[in-house]
Amino acid sequence: MLDVREIFDRLSAITRDVLRHDFASLGVLGESLDRIDVYAQTTAGSAPQDGPVPFPRVQTETWQYRFVDDLTASPMDRDQPIVRDGGRSSIRVAVRLDERVLGALNFTSCEPIPYTSADLVVARRVADYIALALSHQRLADQHRRAAALRERAANLEVLDGLLATLTGVLDIREVFDRVSAIAQRVLPHDGLTLMEIIDDGAKIRMHASMGFGPLPTPYEYSPGRIRLLSQPNEYKVIADMREQPEYAASPALAAGMRALLVTSIRVEGRQYGGLTFYSKQPGRYTRDDALIAGRIADHVALALSHHRLAEQARRNEELRARAEKSDLIDEALASVLDTGDLQAAFDRVSNVVQKVLPHDALLLAVRLREGQRARVYAARTSSARPFPEIVDVPPRLVADPSWEFDLVDDLQASPDQQHLWTTQQGAQVRSRVTTRSLRIPALPCATIPRHAADRAPE
Hints:
The protein is of the alpha+beta class and about 450 residues long.
């Protein structure tokens, strides 16, 4: 079936022998009959303008034809581009099918000679043929759309079957390349990213990507003026990022991507972020593609939900194990503190604590009244040199009487720690904790240093 637009010049040339005209155009009405858009026109002359229909709907539904003897004198026509090209008279007839008006066929002549009823007969005959051609063309378009929908439905079934293999995956980031490969069959793309909205939309955290080379993930960046998705099942299609100022600084644009389709992801009822498909071809994605993208996003959301449940279970297990370990320590410490003098008890405490918090030295000191120094009441160290009876209090603890704990990753690299006895003994890592739970009136200080070479990974 030929497209009317493809043969319109030829149709005009054939008609010109029986109906004089210099320009011809075909306008098609919208469903509500309140707007007419140019559907086809001859190559000669300027394009007629699309725009609203200047008549009431009832008048549009019943009109048959219109003669315009002098376009330059017609208020509705004198400003049209076709008049500037020399048009002087025209005849317009309705294109109708089954008593329904589809559009209007317009013939324009540069001769200031009015059209006659004989011209109307010819124009109507041509309009009848065009109405039949438009009807066939619309049926063909409907068949193509129906076939496309059937193919899309089949693709979605295949997609669901393939993505079902990802159901047991706990971390979608580990199999993101598989997600991309599966989606490629039904939604071709040059890049794919999984992002999370954080800080109430102030930042985006990219968790996984494909098509952007060895991009480190996760990483964070500001979305700038880019509007983020916030509603369930929401999507956004950008035909060409180069034409959108808000995407000027986008990493995807810098990577050569032009078109994008992003669909929202919700996890456990909360807006999580989006799954974004990129293409280097402008205009690659349409609204129809959003259905497929949404289906893929649903599977990704399910995997993210499973990952969160697994992470929560892992954290709960860690807390349970930590609580059990704390209980054991409390019991052990209670047993060793019940008997013996302070130093002997302190040695037993060190032995117990060593199993859960490895250390090279353990110190119990009470700050003196002047606050700058502390008296050592008990200590244990692997060094050949014993702790002195009086030690300096670290400056930052002197400045902050309300301190609860103090962590120093590298004593040797901290200027305010250089004068301390532990630093001079070669200690690299130290933590300080309060012992207020012992209800000692003076502020106590305990230090637990470890050598950096023996530090366990955090």
